[in-house]
Amino acid sequence: MDVFPDFGGVGGAADLRSIVGALLMFVLVTAVLMLIVCAIIWAISGASGNYQAATKARTGLLVAVGAAALSGAGVAWLNFLLDVGTRL
């Protein structure tokens, strides 16, 4: 017996998929832009001796990497759960 979620049973499932895909794209683009900006600020503030700004930029860089990793891991986790659901 195959059990799989019927995404067609929900009205507007195609629209929901496109909205989720667009939100994921915005999260990844924002994370990459944050990563670039924080790396530049970290380099400039570290070179000029402003260690407080360098610490905040390093924290922002780590947050951007974490956001990108979590958004990618969320998709992988959902695919894993759907795969496990088909085997039950």
UniProtKB/TrEMBL annotation:
- Lineage, top-rank taxon, reads Bacteria
Q: Which UniProt keywords apply?
A: Membrane, Transmembrane, Transmembrane helix
Among InterPro entries, the record links this protein to: DUF6112 (IPR046094)
Which sequence ranges are marked TM in the entry? 20-47, 59-82
Q: What is this protein called?
A: Integral membrane protein
Its lineage opens with: Bacteria, Bacillati, Actinomycetota, Actinomycetes, Micrococcales
